[in-house]
Structures are given as C-alpha cells and as structure tokens.
Amino acid sequence: EDQVTQSPEALRLQEGESSSLNCSYTVSGLRGLFWYRQDPGKGPEFLFTLYSAGEEKEKERLKATLTKKESFLHITAPKPEDSATYLCAVLGSSARQLTFGSGTQLTVLP
Amino acid sequence: EAQVTQNPRYLITVTGKKLTVTCSQNMNHEYMSWYRQDPGLGLRQIYYSMNVEVTDKGDVPEGYKVSRKEKRNFPLILESPSPNQTSLYFCASSLPDARLAGSGNEQFFGPGTRLTVL
C-alpha cells in the first residue's frame, strides 16, 4: 500500500524567510510524485510532477526535488500570497490512483 | 475559460435520499476522477475514469456510483447517503500521461461540493 507523510503539518514563516516542506513516501515502483497547492475553500491547483529520483523542477519561488524516499518543496523568499496548504501525492506502479498526504499548511506573515 | 464545474456547491440532505453531484469539464480531457477530502485524512480517490464508458474504483468507492456516458461529464451518485459521507467532494480532470501508465497528470480540480448528510 502506498503511503505519503508530509511534515511539518503547519509552518509559519516571515516574508522572505526561506524554508522547505518535506514529503516522505513509500511506494512500490514510483511512477510519479506530484505537488499541489490548495487555498482555503478551493480545489487543489497543480504545481509539479516529478518522475524519477534526481529530478528537479522550478516555478517562481518554488523548487521541487525528488530522491528515492522523499521530496522537498523549497520556498525561496516567500511572500504572503504563498500562504496555502501544499499537498504531495504519489502514483505507484501497482496503483491507478493517486495517494495524497495530509498536507502542510504554510502561513507567510508580512 | 478552461474549467471544471461542479453542482451543487453546497448540499444538506437526509439519510437515504438519493442524490447526484454533477461534474463537467470543457478541456476535452479523457481522465476524470472524484475525491473526498476529510480533516486529517487528506484527499482520497473515490472513482476514476480513463475515458468514456471506462470507470474504476479508487480507494473509497463504497456507497458511491459513477457513470461516464460522455467525455465531458462524470456525475457522482449517492444512492442512499449516510452521515459518514458528509465531506468535501472534488471532481478533477486531466489528459492521460503515458509515463503514468495512462493515469492523469496535471489534474484540474473543480471548486468542490460540501455535502452534509443528516
């Protein structure tokens, strides 16, 4: 059974204070690891797909990295508008559906 | 505008009263899915569909039905709702990705349907 654990559950940062969110996973044959952002009262919004260990992707202040056991979402010089819940999900070779973690709720204070 | 729409957005109903939550997408996506989101449990997939007339169970299919008669629509049916189906429901759609064995990538999510079953 695929499992995803995200840490920390909640993170408060000052504007400009860089940090990283962690997504640890166990899966039988990773096909893909996904990051989504979810604002309160809205559906998740796609950020990144990573397919294999060593892969990295960037978008504005966000950078996602992947190893064989975990993924990190690095946030550089965050702004208040980066406040949201960040969700990680995996798709294993034995499954057709995504397994999501519980998310990290990020608050960036001005 | 590319979007996934869900209706209704909010629904309060009683145990046993059949209901349908509609989902429609205008992006010509093959892959569609339904999730429920509960505090502390994250998003869990209920059903998914890789194309018209092709549906399959996700992690938590009990008590739900779906159909995919048209590419754009993927309704979720609760034949006899129970209080444990009180939740926030999301529909999503995407194009299939060969690197994901045909599963959806870059899923577009709808705005959600908050369902309360009394």
Task: Describe what this molecule looks like in 3D.
The complex is a heterodimer of chains A (110) and B (118). With 110 residues, chain A is mostly beta strands. Helix content of chain A is 0%, strand content 59%. Chain A is built from no helices and eleven strands. In chain A, the strands form two sheets. In chain A, strands 2, 4, 5, 9, 10 and 11 form a six-stranded mixed beta sheet that branches. Chain A is globular. Chain B has 118 residues and is an all-beta fold. In chain B, strands 2, 4, 5, 6, 9, 10 and 11 form a seven-stranded mixed beta sheet that branches. A four-stranded antiparallel beta sheet of chain B has the order 1-3-8-7, with no helix packed on it. In chain B, a hairpin with a 7-residue loop joins strand 9 and strand 10. Chain B is globular. Chains A and B meet through strand 4, strand 5, strand 9 and strand 10 of A and strand 5 and strand 10 of B.
- Biggest interface between chains: A-B, 24 and 27 residues
What is the number of helical segments of chain B per DSSP (H or I, 4+ residues)?
0
Count of distinct strands of chain B: 11
Which of globular, elongated, flat, extended, rod-shaped describes the shape of chain B? globular
